[in-house]
Amino acid sequence: MQRPAFPQPVKMTDDIWQIDLMEQGLRYRTGAYVILDEKPTLIETGSANSHEALMAGLSAIGLSAHDLAYVVVTHVHLDHAGGAGQLIAKAPQAQLVVHPRGARHMADPSKLWAGATQVYGDKTEALFGGVVPVPTEHILVREHEETLSIGRRTLQFFDSPGHAKHHFTILSEVDRALFAGDAVGIRYPTEFTGFPFEFIAPSSSPIDFDPVAVHQTLDMLLTLPFDWVYHAHFGKSLKLEAIDHTRRLADAFAAVIERIYSPDIETQTVVAELRRLIADDLERQGKTALDLRVLDIDVVLDALGLVYYEKKRRERNN
Question: Taking every annotated instance into account, which residue ranges of this chain make up the domain Metallo-beta-lactamase (predicted)?
Fold first, then answer.
């Protein structure tokens, strides 16, 4: 049986590569980053279903799983960390670096899996594959502002909630780069959307979206010494561009759900409002998109996250 052909990794700098993880069979959707240093480091594994694409990408760079010293996941959502256990099983020398709130879910992914099935139902395994536990001796927690030396680089980790409570971002000051996961929005490249422009929007995922925390995270990140944001979805953006667009639209998302929410609101009602909001925002930037349904891989989840956020917000305020 012929093995599928995977996209070639993209050289971002002399020793940083992006591997397209082919999430849900889609190109230009989710990427992992490889830092070639004395201790080669991978940032994001993707889901279990991305494992073959990840292995092919490492091989194309000239690495195998046995060459990795560290595997970092920005947060433990399945599209970022679902394949961590599968990878660590092939990389017994490597440590999995994870946010303190995410460590227990890597060691015992049962609650992580249960939470995903609440969102995706019986499609969960088809979308992401299974989840393999990571042995605790392979898990390395990094607290806020702690560091990790990988050679000529020292990576620094920053607690970055807003998209998820178990999210950190990783600063490589040498590269003037922040590996941001989903904390500083999603970048939509033209190759993914088919639009003649690229743009950035936040991700209000179930169940942790918090626009107040988004602001706090972005305010903190503004003070850090980097020029580039490396998004998991997908590619890189200039720092101020990513922060400004994420902040503005996170506020707009929150305002929309506050205006239209009712206890019996249907997801499709929120989806339609978000499509309208994004279209209007793009138009104000002089960009016209003909069909925003290509974004539904995110917009449907954004709608679910907003309904959950607003329901909880009103419960707290009553």
Answer: 29-233
E strand or H helix at 254: helix 239-260
Give the whole-angstrom CA distance, residue 210 versus residue 218: 12
| Dihedral pair phi/psi, residue 287, rounded to 5° | -120, 130
Quote the CA–CA distance of 179 and 158 in Å, as a whole number. 11
Between CA 67 and CA 87 the distance in angstroms is 12
Q: What is the pLDDT of residues 115-149, one digit of tens each?
A: 889 888 889 999 999 899 999 999 999 999 999 99
pLDDT by residue (tens digit) across 12-68? 999 999 999 999 999 999 999 999 999 999 999 999 999 999 999 999 999 999 999
In CATH, the number for domain 10-238 is 3.60.15.10
What sign for the dihedral angle of Cα 256, 257, 261, 267?
positive
User: Quick one: how many helices (H) and strands (E) in the chain?
Assistant: 11, 15
- Going from the C-alpha of 148 to that of each of 45, 66, 110, 157, 317, the distances in angstroms are 19, 19, 29, 8, 41
Q: Write out the two tokens for 12.
A: 């971002």
Residue in this structure with the two tokens 């033209």, named with its chain if needed: 190
Check: CB of residue 157 under 8 Å from CB of residue 146.
yes
Here the contacts of 169-173 (C-beta below 8 Å, separation 24 or greater) are 169/74, 169/217, 169/221, 170/43, 170/72, 170/74, 171/224, 171/225, 171/226, 172/35, 172/226, 173/225, 173/226
Structure tokens at 318: 């009553």
DSSP code at position 162: S
Q: Identify which of 76, 85, 10 has the alpha carbon closest to the alpha carbon of residue 51.
A: 85
SS3 262: coil
